[in-house]
Design brief:
The chain is of the alpha/beta class and 295 residues long. 44% of the residues lie in helices and 15% in strands. The protein starts with a helix and ends with a helix.
Length: 295
């Protein structure tokens, strides 16, 4: 005799849902493994050279004394343009920028991997904006001319803190969709759910590192505010009005705080994905700011 429960539609719905759940979990695990694999590959010299294989100038991988890894691209006689990635982020953030031949008419690129990311050692998370800035300044230790520093997203406050620590080494700071205001930060609920230590071993390293940064960011920004105030260099900001990751209000807030040092250009239609959808705009903003501000 046929079991009426197993022959009914409810039994089959439950069975299909169970299979779908297992499939989704399996795909999630494969996705996490894939992301970890990509991170490990980018942490190798071969991975970096693959990412930058279409760069029109030769690249060199270098390390500071503290183990911070960075890429150098271009003529050593040109002034330096240092580019800081976001969080989560990697050297991939600036790949399109480095492919533009116009960049090398003015600058030599220096692209560090911030503490905790890529091939930089040690591999643990570093939530302090000040400490990250201190280590990134090591990249400029041998420069004869002041450098331009540009930072995207969570890399922007690090770059601004660098300018506060060593304004004599920084000719100009460019902030791209930067997070500056410790009271105006968007945090997703999942960040609190994965903050426990066990997830350090379950998540890709770059995701764990970025989450540690995220949860510690308000306090880290409060500690860095005096450095922002000491950044006596020209500061150019570009930020997308519909930014859903780093609220647009961060950039007007910094403009009000620092006054005439700051110029802000607002992009009406592009959000936080700007470096991945509109890198040509960022290249022009860095190379030719007069096009945006009319100076």
């Amino acid at each position: 005799m046929t079991d009426p429960i197993k022959s009914g539609w409810l039994y089959w719905v439950r069975k299909i849902l169970r299979v779908l759940l297992l499939l989704v979990l399996g795909l999630a695990v494969l996705g996490l493994l894939g992301m970890e694999g990509l991170d490990r590959y980018l942490s190798t010299e071969r991975g970096v050279r693959w990412i930058y294989k279409k760069t029109p100038e030769a690249i060199a991988l270098r390390y500071t004394d503290s183990g911070l890894r960075y890429i150098e691209i271009g003529n050593p006689e040109k002034p330096a343009l240092l580019l800081l990635h976001g969080s989560p982020g990697s050297v991939m953030d600036w790949r399109s920028f480095a492919r533009d031949p116009a960049v090398y008419d003015q600058y030599r690129l220096l692209i560090p991997e911030r503490p905790g990311y890529g091939g930089t050692k040690p591999r643990g998370a570093e939530p302090s904006v000040q400490e990250q800035a201190r280590r990134c300044l090591e990249v400029l230790s041998g420069e004869g001319l002041p450098a331009v520093v540009a930072g995207y997203s969570y890399g922007a406050p690090v770059g601004l803190a660098m300018a506060g620590m060593a304004p004599e080494q920084i000719a100009r700071f460019v902030g791209v969709a930067g997070q500056y205001n410790p009271e105006d930060e968007m945090t997703l609920p999942i960040s609190y759910m994965i903050r426990f230590g066990v997830f350090r071993y379950l998540l890709p390293r770059w995701l764990w590192v970025s989450n540690v940064e995220k949860l510690g960011h308000p306090d880290a920004l409060r500690q860095a505010l005096p450095l922002f105030d000491q950044a006596n260099v020209p500061i150019d900001l570009i930020h997308g009005l519909p930014d859903a990751i780093v609220p647009y209000g961060n950039s007007p807030w910094l403009e009000r705080r620092l006054g005439d040092r700051v110029r802000l250009y607002t992009v009406e239609q592009v959000g936080h994905e700007m470096p991945f959808s509109s890198m040509d705009t960022i290249v022009q903003f860095v190379l030719s700011p007069e096009r945006f501000f009319g100076d």
